[in-house]
Fold this sequence. Notes:
Blueprint: E1 2-14, H1 18-23, E2 28-45, E3 48-64, E4 69-79, H2 86-94, H3 100-125
Antiparallel strand pairs: 1-4, 2-3, 3-4
Amino acid sequence: MIVNFRVTQVESKTYSTPEEVKKQKNININYDINLKGVSVVPKQTPFGEKTVLRVEYAFSINYLSPNVGHIRFEGFSEYYSDEQDVTQIKNDWDNGKAPSDVQNQIANTMVSNLAPLAVTLSSTLGLPSAMPLPNINFQQKKKPEPVQTTYHG
């Protein structure tokens, strides 16, 4: 389970004015998630000191074709498990065999925490939304057509 999530750096930049960005018909948005810097550290918890796996991350959102801006977050996430030895997880990670369940928990926590910030930053910079937003479509209910029956006599 994720026991700590921190953002240590935010960088955002636009290379065009909001008006120029709005003229673009198609801007590709590229997401880059980089998990790195895995270490085992002691962590003080309400249940005493525990050993946790600290994984540093970099999450970048790049607006490409044309290159109109970027948003980048850096920080770390800490993972703890009662069932697994975090030192063994680190050793596996170092040997290129990072457990996908741990990677998924870290990446999903990262995206769920950073998506709202990315949407706010992209709007403030005049860039398209950094994350897909749902499209709401209220439709009028149509009155049921009366059933017409033809009788043959």
